[in-house]
Amino acid sequence: MRCPYCDTDHDRVVDSRPSDEGSAVRRRRECQACGRRFTTYERHEEVPLLVRKRSGLVEPFEREKLLAGIERAIAGRSVSAGAPGAIADDIEERARAQGREVASELLGLMVLERLRALDPVSYLRFASVYKGFEDVGDFEREFKELQKTTAPKRRS
Ligand SMILES: [Zn+2]
Predict the structure, then answer these.
(1) What's the CA-to-centroid distance between 99 and ligand 1, angstroms?
(2) Euclidean distance between CA atoms 141 and 137, whole angstroms
(3) Strands (DSSP E) along the chain, which ranges?
(4) Cα of 27 to ligand 1 centre, how many Å?
(5) What tens digit of pLDDT does each residue of 56-89 get?
(6) pLDDT per position as a tens digit, 128-144
């Protein structure tokens, strides 16, 4: 690291500690030429997550887009205000754990899985957009499926 005082590229790290809640490392350095100390911050460079759409098109992941879809499904329902953000964060984290690229179908399924556990109406709303339901029959079938899997849990 080049010294900001004398421009010599020869220093010694005297202290190193996490800052910004762990997202950066703060290093205190001492220039070996002039003896002055300076501080540097090192950050992780974020690797972009890519989304492969059904059409084969690949585009960068947009958390805002995912969040907007979840919020539309949840609108007016009595779920906690922080729920959409928490779901979006969780899904982004899980998608990143899979690798650099994630299929849009998988993102949709992960949202469905979370909404299913959270609120049946929000789940059906999201499913209607995501799965492209065309008539009431589709809804009813999906709703029956939902009852089949959630009913036993409610009784226990
Ligand atoms: Zn120096």
Answers:
(1) 42
(2) 6
(3) 11-19, 24-31, 37-43, 50-52, 58-60, 101-103
(4) 16
(5) 899 999 999 999 999 999 999 988 889 999 999 9
(6) 887 766 666 766 777 67
> Rounded to the nearest whole angstrom, what is the distance from the C-alpha of residue 12 to the centroid of ligand 1?
11
How many angstroms is it from 9 CA to the middle of ligand 1? 8
Are the C-beta atoms of 130 and 111 separated by less than 8 Å?
yes
Residues with Cβ < 8 Å from 19, sequence gap 6 or more? Answer: 25, 26, 41
Q: What are the Cα distances from residue 48, in Å, to 31, 54, 63?
A: 35, 19, 12
25 alpha-carbon distance from chain centroid = 23
Distance 49 CA to ligand 1 centre (A): 40
Burial class (CB in 10 A: 0-12, 13-18, 19+), 37: middle
CA 31/CA 119 separation, integer angstroms: 59
In sequence order, the β-bridge partners of residue 101 are 50
Q: Model-level pTM?
A: 0.59
CA distance 82 to 63: 15
Distance 38 CA to ligand 1 centre (A): 9
